[in-house]
Structure formats: C-alpha cells, structure tokens
C-alpha cells in the first residue's frame, strides 16, 4: 500500500491556505522571521506610526520589550496594546493583533523554516498573524499514528521553540486522515488535552483538507485565538475551547442579542460547562446595551473549587462572603458588568427593602441571568421573585442532566418550563467518543441473599429494611470487599475513591467498621449535620460523630479542625481528594455533584440513585487523565443495573448503553489474548526481542506490547482478575521479562546509540506511564506543590514538610534523581511564592539556574569552557549520542589522562541529563 507522503500533505495544505487568501511567504530561518515580523508590524500599525516605520534602534528596543517572555506572558502581550516610546520621545500604542475585528489582520503561511542551534529543526507549516507565529502545524504521512507528530512538537517545545516562537498559541497535528488541535503551554501538555474539531451537530471534522477549510479559515482562525482561548490566571496556562463549547457560546450569544427568549445548554457533566458558561457571560457583559450579567450558582456549589475555577478566567470575580451588601455594592458599580453570586444572595437583595434604591433602577434595564446546574429546583423557586423585579430579564441555563417528565422536580417542573429551548447539546456518548470524558466500568455485588427485586418497593419494604442494609455482617462484608480490592483499583493508591451511602447513620457505621479493621488506607468522612436534628434512637448526635472523624483526620494529616471550622475542613478534604492524599472518602451527598478531581477514579455505592442523581454521581470518576485511568470505576453494593441503564439511555438519547459502559472482563480478556498473539508473532519469547535488528521490527514490537499492556491495565481494575497462565495465557514473570525488553528499547531511544541519526522510534508513543505504577512520582509531587496554600505561612510549612516526607519515601527512579532539586526548590523558592505565581514557571526557572550552575562547576573542575560542556550536553540531549571524537579534540592531555577524563565527561553528561530531563 502506498501512502501520501508528508511533503505532498504539506504542499496540499499550503496550496489550500493560499486559496483561502493566506499570503505565501518564504521564511528560511529565524532571522528571516524577525525581518518579516518587523515589516508586518510596521504595516499593521501604519496609521499609528504616521507612515514612519520603526527605525533600527526602535525595532530593537521593541523586540526587547516583547521578546524573551514566558508563553503565558507572551499570550497576554499578543492581546494587549503596547505602549512604546519612539526615538523622538513621543508615545505610540502599538497593536500586535486586532482581537475585536478578527478579519482585519494580515495572514501569512510558510513552511520548512529551519531553526539552528547546536542542531537543526525544520518546522512543517507555520501560520502568522501580523508577522507573529500563532499556529504551528506538524504533519505525519498517512498511515502513521499522528501522536508521533504530537511527540515531535514536544521535542521542539523543549529544544527550539524560543524567541518569537513563544507567541505560538495553537498546535495542530495531522496525518491527513486524523487532525487534532491543542493550546501551547509553559508546562507539560498531555495528549488528552488535544481535541478534534467538529460541526455544530458534533460530527467530527478529521481530514486535513476539511479541517483547514473550517478551522483554518482566516477569520475563524483569528476568532479562535482572540475570543475562544482563555488565559488561566491561576495556573498561568493557555486554554483553547473545544468545538461544542464554541458552538454553545455562539448559539447562546446569538439568542441573547437577537431575541428576548430564554434558552439552555445541555452539555454532559465533565465537559467543561464552567468555562463555556463563563465565556458566554464575559462576551455578553461586553455588550453596551446589556447593563448586567449575573452568573448564579447555588450556595452549596460556591466552594473553593468554584472560586478557583472562576478566578482562573477573571481574577477576583467571585465574592465568597455571605454578606448581601457586597453583592449590592457590585450591582451599584457601573464599571462591573459581570457579577458572580449565589441564588440565595440575589433573592435577599431583591427582598430586602434597605437595598430598594439601588435595585430599583434595574427593573426596566436589560439584564441577563446565567444559571449553573440549572436542573436544580432552587432556581425554579426563586424565578418568580426575579421576574417580578427584573422586568426585562433573560435567562440562560447550563446543565449536564436536564429535567424531563420522567425525572421532573418535586414541584413538577422540567428544565424547558423555565428555559424554553435547548440551544446546543453535547451528550455523554459524544464526550466519551471524543475522549473528553471517560466511560464507566460498573460492577454489581450482591450483598443480600434474597430473591426479590430490590427496586420493587412493595415487596422490598417488608424484607430489605434498614435493619437488613445496616446489619453488622453486611456492613463488614462490604467494608472487607472494598479493603481487599482498593489497592488494585486505585493502582497502588495513585487514584482515590468516594464511598457514598444511604444516610449519616450508615456512614458512621461504615467509618467505625473501617476503623476496626486492619488496613493501611487513609479513610475520612464528611457530611452536613442539622443543628436541631432528631437524634432519637442514636447513640450520638451526628455532629459528635463528625467531631470524632475530625480528631482522626487531624492525627492523620497534622491539622487542627473541629466542627466550628467546618468550611475549612471541607476545603482541606476537597484539596486532599484532588491530590490523592485521601484514599477513600465517605459521603452521603457532598461531592456527588459539581466536584472535579482527576485522581478521583472509584465510586463505591451502597444506596439507590436514579436518573440525574445517578449520572451526576457516576461522573465524579470520569475526568480524563493518563493512560493508567481508562475509565471511571463504579462498584455497586445494591442492584442498580436497571437504574443505571435507564439513566444512561435518557441522557444519551439512545437505547444502547454500550457507548457509555465499558466492556466486560471477559471481553477485555479476549482482547488481551489477541494482543498476546501479535506480541509472540514479533518475538516468540522475551529473549528473541534481542534479535530484532531493524527499527521497523522494533517499532512493531513496541506497538504490540503497548497494546497488550493497555488491555492488562483494564483487566487489573476488575475484582475477578488474577494474573495466572491458565487465565491470561502467559506467566506473570514472562510478561515482566517482555516488559524489561520493551523498556530497554525505550531507554535506547531516549539515550541514543544511533550514531547521531534520528531514530524512527524517536516519536513513537511508548505510553511509558502504563509501565511504571509508582504512585509517588515527579508529576505527583509537582501536583502537591501546586496545591500549597502559599498565602498561609503555617499551612505552607506543613505542606512543605509533608511533601519532603513523600519524596523521602519514594521509590520512583525519576523522582529519586530529582529529589535534591525538588527539596531545594521547596526550601528556597516555595517560601517566596504567592498564589499569583506559576509553580511550573518558577520551577522551570529554578531548575535552569541549577543546571547552569552544575555545568559551570563541572567545567571548572575539568578545565573546559562552559560553552564546550553546554554543547556536549545539548548534543546528547537532542540526539542521544555522545560524540567522543569531538570531546577528544577539545582535550589537550596525554593519552591515558585524556581517556580517563573523557569517561568522566561522558558520565557527567548522562547523569546530568537524567537529572534535568
């Protein structure tokens, strides 16, 4: 079979973009790109410069002003006007891009720009706006895994995207058949953060020519960069919106500007509704005829997570106090068109007569309410109150689980009663297909031996009473099952679980049962208690039960919480679930809606849930992460099969649950065995892997064994899994021997040995995270550091101590190499950081400084120049090859001394690269 070559793909793309009115330019190297930028900058700002182009000295100063910044800061500069003083002392405001009228920019395309340092890279296709590179396209020929293009971009980002290339906003990878896009970033970029483009009906647009016609149409491309990228201030990252988010925002804004009708967006839980709704709010708030946009959330959702989410997009946009007067101050402020507040505070502001003078002028003004989680009943109850006050109000809702007739609210309402028309849908089956959320693997465990349908309440009532569900033997059986399998399901505590039960008494009973059993898991509990609750028939008030749990929690984590500090306890529990420091969290309803945590991967259930409540709870587990998290794990201790199927069918608009629920153990076992046949076809035994000499054969083995391990990863989450030859068709030791060979090939590619030639394996996806299951690794430690409360010295110091302890007990090889660096960063840099600082940026700067010091010190020890040692390291880092001849030529010593010194230099280069790579 013949495939279209990369060169042909590239030519076709260039021709298409030229036909779409991009200007074709030839930019052979970085100097030519700077010269082109100067020309375009003068052209774009011609009027502001009064037809007087920047002089050499002016352009040099302007370049210094905008160059050498982080990717995040460069993105801010791209969108801002730049105050610049000319040689004659006059000030001008220069623009790099027109972010309001997207089509009024200058668009160019080039290909095969060579950027040279110690080594040369050639970039496939680069798109420019006003002379700055904003989009980079990397291509692989048809038939190749386009993830190789993604891996190539990662190499370029590390080694050569410097200077004006820091203005790249979006990357595109394609093999002609499949095409994805993703945002640039100063930190690591996961492949799970790459997206397919689609049309408004969620039909994928994958071929390169269709993608170019739609996404890379000039005005659309500039609109994506200008309007549909978000600068995440909290994490100092760029975010690009996914297609369904873009279409939802456009549909909502269109309805708001062209009609006075309401509407709602149905986007499945976990698909990024917060970003979508906030972007819509932001756009409408900038419309001059709209006086205010109120973004309303329910009070119980306005936790630290919501605060963080909104402040990512606009600093200080959320008032966390319970003081309604603060809200009224914001309403009175004409310069604050966008207000994020709670449903409850808005109701208070309307009802309280003391605020009447401020609230009254808005009765006839155009205001917009955007309601998060609009399937909740609370807003329905207060809509009449809002309607009576805001006569010209328009309402838009966002929900992942709308209310229909079958799951309508207690007062009989469905979502369309208030919000009228559904403006855009993105269903759970769409999100799973696009790999924006994970599917679910559901296990049902029978814990009561009776032949009765547990959902037939007329029969169940007399048999399966609370006495049965709460029986000590049953509670012990379930607790033992969880403790037996949690280590494997959590991948050695790399992931965390929530256990939701049927009320506070059951929660307390499970907590006490876990406490009485032998295990090494960190188990916590949280629930809300009533001040005047009826405790008849109970041994203790639920507040006292929670106090006991907090005492244990304080011992576990060195904290000092009690029920008077409940909100602080809530925040701390939330943070520790997000960093997998709590292994199992016992809850009734808290954290079952609106809570996002990538390490949360297991939901244990000993209760009944239906429709939207069931899907909301399941969806806590299905946020995408690494390859080690293939789906959300749901373990049910009651018969929820029928309820699960009904809920999935309702919210997927389908009669088929297979798009949402993962395959059975037996099906994955068959896939594993089929993959094993392919591995053995390439190498019948682990020893014969050494006979694979051609890189093409090694590549086939890598792909076959990688797939085998992916299926094993799925099998390992099932309770019935046992690694035996009888079951899997291979001994565990034989599998480990194959894995050793696989890792050896990976190390060869990473460290080189190919005589300086770039290996065809260099960009193959090894999915190395599947091979190493260590919980405490570098990304885990960096995640802990990012979650430090930098503004609280006591909490910061406790967190630093905890992280240092975690580093000390780690057995991950990569982490051990970086242990000293991370500890010094914690000691020297972390105390200087505030919540406004980027941890990634700060660590990268620190690591580079330490790296420079180490090279400088070693160069002094061996009598070489810093430039020579730097050059050797760069060569090895890029090609994996140590050129001993070049080192030998630099050293002027007798033969024996030279040989000894060369060996010492080689050891330094390899050790240094391992530590800082």
Task: Provide a descriptive summary of the structure in words.
With 917 residues, this protein is an alpha/beta fold. The protein contains 35 helices and 24 strands. Strand 4 and strand 5 form a beta hairpin. Helix 8 packs parallel to helix 9. It is globular. The two termini are 39 Å apart.
List keywords for this structure.
globular; alpha/beta; 46% helix; 917 residues; six-stranded mixed β-sheet; six-stranded parallel β-sheet; 35 helices
Question: How would you summarize this macromolecular structure in one to three sentences?
Answer:
By secondary structure, this protein is of the alpha/beta class.
Strand and helix layout:
Layout: H1 6-19, E1 23-24, H2 30-44, H3 56-66, H4 71-79, E2 81-85, E3 91-95, E4 107-116, E5 120-129, E6 132-139, H5 147-159, E7 170-174, E8 179-183, E9 197-198, E10 204-205, H6 208-214, H7 218-226, E11 229-232, E12 237-240, H8 243-258, E13 263-267, H9 273-285, E14 292-297, H10 304-313, H11 324-332, E15 338-342, H12 343-351, H13 356-359, E16 367-371, H14 377-389, E17 393-399, H15 415-419, E18 421-426, H16 428-433, E19 440-444, H17 457-463, H18 466-469, H19 472-489, E20 496-501, H20 504-516, E21 523-525, H21 542-557, H22 566-578, E22 584-587, E23 600-606, H23 611-618, E24 632-636, H24 641-652, H25 665-682, H26 695-715, H27 725-728, H28 732-751, H29 778-786, H30 793-808, H31 813-829, H32 839-862, H33 866-879, H34 884-890, H35 895-916
Parallel strand pairs: 1-4, 6-7, 13-17, 13-18, 14-15, 14-16, 16-17, 19-24, 20-22, 20-23, 21-22, 23-24
Antiparallel strand pairs: 2-3, 4-5, 5-6, 7-8, 9-10, 11-12
